[in-house]
Amino acid sequence: DEVGPMELSSHRFVLAVEKAIASPKPMLVVLHQWSNHRLAKKIRGSFRVLTVTRENRDSLADEIAKALKSG
Predict the structure, then answer these.
(1) Contact 40/54 with Cβ under 8 angstroms?
(2) Which of 31, 32, 40, 61 sits a CA distance of 20 to 30 A from 14?
(3) Is the pLDDT of residue 18 over 90?
(4) Pick from 9, 49, 56, 5: which is nearest to 29 by CA?
(5) Dist. CA 68–CA 71, nearest whole Å
(6) Measured distance CA(62)–CA(4) in Å, rounded
(7) pLDDT, tens digit, for every residue of 19-68?
């Protein structure tokens, strides 16, 4: 799910995401590039971050699928 400004205003959502990212399961998280929320900073420090650009947006789906399959 997207971790955006509206979602980050919900304490329950933040707790649920913190629980999810602590699990060993592979995961895809969509995060606003400019977010300075403590959870956004934690996600950036814990996960590989890919920035979507016009140049790479068509090839990212394959890259993400391969990364999720390899765990």
Answers:
(1) no
(2) 61
(3) yes
(4) 49
(5) 5
(6) 24
(7) 999 999 888 889 988 899 999 999 999 888 999 999 999 999 999 999 88
Give the pTM. 0.77
Contact 35, 3 (CB under 8 A): yes
- Cα separation, 5 vs 22, in Å, equals 21
Tokens matching residue 66: 């391969």
For 49-58, the pLDDT digits (tens) are: 999 999 999 9
E strands present in 1-71: 2-3, 30-31
Residue 23 CA from chain centroid, whole number = 14
Q: Which amino acid is at 4?
A: G
